[in-house]
């Protein structure tokens, strides 16, 4: 088992690599690295982290920043040898939300990307599983987008209305 100080020795070259190779913005808190990259560096950053021992993909998800006109797409990975987590975020335009799939690196990425595709409408190039997962009859607007009005959807689909308060 590595000592606590060894973790900081491992982290510094990792951070320097992220900055120099991918022009990443980064910060760390405890054993968590927060990394922000341009969308064109998303896949290469993931490959680099996997090479650095981040072998476990925990999740891929998104945040809809409607006022900025972008989605923030992020993935969270874990390096068990160093007990280190990394959250990598990027932005993609809401009107053309496309990123490369991470499924060539981590097989479980397919399912996480499938959910983000269905709920936000984000396409992951290279993921062949992009088909409905939860929704039998998907609404016109993906349900996790900020402009989705679930009350209107329920009214349209089921004829139910909500009381005025």
Concise structural overview:
The chain is an alpha/beta fold and 165 residues long. It has 4 helices and 7 strands; from the N terminus they run H-E-E-H-E-E-E-E-H-E-H. 30% of the residues lie in helices and 28% in strands.
Q: What is the CATH class designation?
A: Alpha Beta
Distance between the termini: 59 Å
**Roughly how much helix do the residues carry, as a percent range?**
25-40%
Name the CATH homologous superfamily.
NADH:ubiquinone oxidoreductase Nqo5 subunit
- Give the CATH topology: Beta Polymerase, domain 2
| Largest sheet data | 5 strands, mixed
Spans of at least 5 consecutive residues with low confidence: 5-9
Number of domains: 1
**C-alpha Rg (nearest Å):** 19 Å
* Cα shape: elongated
Mean pLDDT: 91
Work out the strand percent.
25-35%
Q: How would you spell out the order of helices and strands?
A: HEEHEEEEHEH
> What is the CATH architecture annotation?
2-Layer Sandwich
- The side-by-side strand order for the widest beta sheet comes to 1-2-5-4-3
Tally of DSSP β-strands: 7
Number of helices: 4
Q: Structural class, judged by helices and strands? A: alpha/beta
List keywords for this structure.
single chain; 165 residues; alpha/beta; Beta Polymerase, domain 2; five-stranded mixed beta sheet; two-stranded parallel ribbon; 28% strand
Describe it.
- By secondary structure, the protein is an alpha/beta fold.
- The chain has a single domain, classed as NADH:ubiquinone oxidoreductase Nqo5 subunit (Beta Polymerase, domain 2).
- It is 30% helix and 28% strand.
- It is built from four helices and seven strands.
- It has helices spanning 4-22, 42-51, 109-120, 150-158, and strands at 25-29, 32-36, 56-65, 70-79, 84-93, 98-100, 123-125.
- It has a five-stranded mixed beta sheet with strand order 1-2-5-4-3, covered by helices on one side.
- The longest helix has 19 residues, at 4-22.
- The radius of gyration is 19 Å and the shape is elongated.
- Residues 5-9 have low confidence and may be disordered.
